């Protein structure tokens, strides 16, 4: 069916059945008496065929069909093992002085019989209940916690998405009230940009971002990477939900992306992958830098030396540009944070750290959106709740080509879904429209 499976049988000191799920690890249990280990590995999943296989098919029927296919595959595998045992027994005779067709045939028969006895004993003594006491390796060492999480929490992910959607609608009402409060001033922005980052395969976070876009009339979304978690093919299915956002979506890939994920993103009509080229949208000149790890399979964190080399290249590239970008976006703040204010770029965006921040620097502003997906699954493993965060940026467009767009305000949104509350921090930036940069007020207005 949709699953590509590998099986192997090896001589082992104890009778284990082992399932491997790259790159997550493996789970095994002592299921039978003979000293054989049956290893079953999931090598690939055809997502399109998986949808077709389960579409309009009751769950019980689908599971029954898969179980029958699995039994047939194991039976075919055992037949091949017996054949190989016979061939091995026959070839084994070649190492002894007495040879002949009769002896070779007899040795082959003994090979088949020996393997048949071992396999038969394994099938006869096989105990499925042994997997109630499994051994985990790799990431799956968190297996018991994950099983409990599925039973108690993750099955409610749709409810969480609905909760975040309601919060997004309430934010709109709150901002309407905020604009009526004279101390905060009125934000007269022409373009609204939503800065998101580090969804880590959390569909609820995408639902939240889509609701914020809808509620506030956001013109553009800038994502500073780590849309997926481990960059595996089965995870990349989440990228299709980006189309729900419905506005232009720019992404500077993070170290948790990979070429396959990026290819699927490119297929979406509203998505652009930023790769050090200038993107001109809604009056803004934006440059994005992909993380070096996005070119590889798996979550690869670049070395400090690699980041310094790339930063030096980027700094030289920006300095030689006749017209400087208005926004620089990258996943790892260590790559772009030192460029704030030193290259003539007034706004630098990043993610990676899962800590939201708006910081004023001489000649520029640094913004980290934190994690719009609540750090994904790892966010559920920590004692202190990781909030869902995003930053809404308000830009004032110039009246002439001689001027530059100006960042007039930034709204940091934090949603604590477990506590059922959210915080908003607004930072207002002052400065004349002729000013090429931003002159922020002293301290944030909350």
Structure explained in plain terms:
This protein has 446 residues and is α/β, with parallel strands linked by helices. The chain is 32% helix and 25% strand. It contains 9 helices and 19 strands. It has helices at 47-54, 59-92, 101-125, 143-152, 157-179, 203-216, 259-266, 304-319, 333-336, and strands spanning 3-11, 16-21, 25-30, 36-45, 135-138, 191-196, 220-223, 249-251, 271-273, 278-281, 284-289, 327-330, 347-350, 357-361, 364-368, 388-396, 406-416, 421-430, 439-440. The strands form 3 sheets. It has an 8-stranded mixed β-sheet, covered by helices on one side. Strands 10-11-12-13-15-14 form a 6-stranded mixed β-sheet. It has a 5-stranded mixed β-sheet with strand order 1-4-2-3-5. Helix 2 (59-92) packs antiparallel against helix 3 (101-125) and helix 5 (157-179) runs parallel beside helix 6. It is elongated, with a radius of gyration of 29 Å. The model is unreliable at 148-156, 181-185 and 432-446 (pLDDT under 50).
Give the topology:
Elements (H helix, E strand, L loop, with lengths): L2 E9 L4 E6 L3 E6 L5 E10 L1 H8 L4 H34 L8 H25 L9 E4 L4 H10 L4 H23 L11 E6 L6 H14 L3 E4 L25 E3 L7 H8 L4 E3 L4 E4 L2 E6 L14 H16 L7 E4 L2 H4 L10 E4 L6 E5 L2 E5 L19 E9 L9 E11 L4 E10 L8 E2 L6
Parallel strand pairs: 2-4, 6-7, 7-8, 8-9, 11-12, 12-13, 13-15
Antiparallel strand pairs: 1-4, 2-3, 3-5, 6-16, 10-11, 14-15, 16-17, 17-18, 18-19
